[in-house]
Specification:
325 residues; Complement Module, domain 1; Jelly Rolls; six-stranded antiparallel beta sheet; ConA-like_dom_sf; Somatomedin_B_dom; MAM_dom; Sushi domain-containing protein
């Protein structure tokens, strides 16, 4: 009888080990790392532990692997407590715009929107881009029923300067051309970004995920995202600094500034930043693809005066990436 009990126990242990192993194989999620922190895996659960000088600023501190996917789409981010980090996915009902706000001089305002929205019934709904770039709630701008020169400007919270790191802006976007009901011609749509009065980036029809390096200033300044003569939508706005600014949303083309405006390249033969003119290593297509990237002395002459309290530094490590279709 004792031998039979032993056999049954061994059989049960073997059965459970096989079931648990199969369950584990069915729930294998991709491994990931967290900068300024670590990931502790316990079965199908991942626990995120930030370093003592950092805090969790995005994502959750616990994630579960379900059918080969983590149950939270955004990977966690641990940022050093003094680092610049401002993220907005427009999902919060209490603070939808996360400190961003419409310019009070706007012709048309940016509005909270989603795939199925009441804005559809008042003619202000803008459909999002592909699910690769958009999810849930987002914000949109629609100027299709207005005349020439109609704009909508979105203003960021004040961005403080940093001395030894670069700051960048990331967001998903879609821009479409719309024929004005008041005009017989289709006006050129534009979605542009400026920082402290310095233009950084512009695009027209297309969609993608962009990383834009901010021109380095020595005072706090505001980012302005402006849509003009267009139907546009934006999602997942992030202002951050450091190594996260160098992460590319897609494979970039070598020896070209296409979708790389403002990037200072150190691992290839040409560069696309403001300093490349002095270093004589600009990519050949910089003037065509990056019209706002000019020599530092031209930037100072165009956008700053001798009496201005705003000055630029001579070191501008900046990153810009765009995706257009």
């Amino acid at each position: 009888m004792a031998n039979l009990s032993t056999i049954l126990v061994l059989f049960l242990c073997l059965y459970l080990s096989i079931v648990m192993k199969c369950d584990s194989l069915k729930n294998q999620c991709p491994l990931f790392r967290v900068e300024n922190g670590r990931v502790r895996l316990i079965g199908r659960t991942a626990r995120i532990i930030c370093d003592s000088d950092s805090k969790l600023v995005r994502g959750r501190n616990r994630m579960t692997c379900v059918r080969n996917q983590w149950n939270y789409s955004e990977l966690p981010v641990c940022a050093k407590i003094k680092e610049t980090y401002l993220a907005c996915d427009f999902e919060s009902s209490d603070n939808r715009f996360c400190g961003w706000q419409n310019d009070f001089l706007n012709d048309v305002d940016w509005l909270a929107d989603k795939a199925r929205s009441l804005l559809y019934f008042i003619g202000r709904h803008v459909s999002p881009g592909s699910s690769q770039y958009f999810s849930g709630n987002y914000i949109s701008l629609d100027t299709r029923t207005y005349g020439i020169g109609v704009t909508g400007r979105l203003l960021s919270p004040s961005i403080q300067p940093v001395n030894d790191s670069q700051i960048c802006l990331m967001f998903s976007y879609v821009v479409r051309s719309r024929k004005s009901l008041l005009e017989d011609t289709i006006e050129r749509p534009t979605l542009s970004v400026t920082f402290g009065g310095v233009p950084l980036w512009v695009t027209s029809v297309g969609e993608g995920r962009v990383i834009i390096g901010l021109f380095k200033l020595n005072i706090s300044s505001t980012i302005v995202i402006e849509g003009k003569q267009c139907e546009a939508a934006i999602d997942n706005l992030v202002v951050t600094e450091g190594q996260r600014c160098t992460a590319q949303p897609y494979e970039e083309e070598d020896n070209s500034c296409q979708d790389n405006c403002g990037i200072k390249k150190t691992t290839r033969s040409c560069s696309c930043d403001w300093e490349c003119f002095e270093n004589e290593n600009c990519c050949l297509d910089i003037e065509k693809t990056c019209p706002y990237i000019k020599p530092l002395e031209d930037i100072a002459r165009l956008y700053f005066t001798a009496n201005s309290t705003t000055t630029t530094t001579t070191t501008t490590t900046t990153t810009t990436t765009t995706t257009t279709t």
